[in-house]
Write a structure and sequence with these properties.
The chain is mostly helical and 146 residues long. The chain has one domain: Large-conductance mechanosensitive channel, MscL, domain 1 (Non-ribosomal Peptide Synthetase Peptidyl Carrier Protein, Chain A, Orthogonal Bundle). It has 5 helices and 2 strands, in the order ααβαβαα. It has helices at residues 2-10, 12-46, 69-74, 82-124, 131-145; strands at 57-60, 78-80. The protein has a two-stranded antiparallel sheet.
Amino acid sequence: MLQEFKDFIAKGNVMDMAVGIIIGAAFTAIVTSLVGDLINPLIGLFTGGVDFTNNYAVLAGDVAEGASLDAARETGASVFAYGAFVMAVINFLIIAWVVFMLVKMVNNVKDAAAKEEEAAAVEEAPAGPSELDILMEIRDSLKAQG
């Protein structure tokens, strides 16, 4: 069973997946920073300087007026953190769009490589006699016999 596991791990697909997961985790940190450091301030600019991630509604409990989301959670109050959810959705959409663009780019590169291989295979194929050449050879052969 240990050998089967080693064979499974050694397969290219598993290693590719592991590399993808590691890069994906690093990419998530970049997108989180992009949203938190660049997009949130822009949204805040259009919403009058409001930090969108700290938008919440208190469902139950006492929270000081203007307290941050973290401060509201520390008091033990039940909060509806719609701003954090909206930012998570924005993060997801950005990540999904970038992954889509990467997959599209990789597919285009693969298609171009496949077309080049097909063109090379067609060029490398030995040119045999055409149908007309064979018929002419048969005709000449029949003339020579008769």
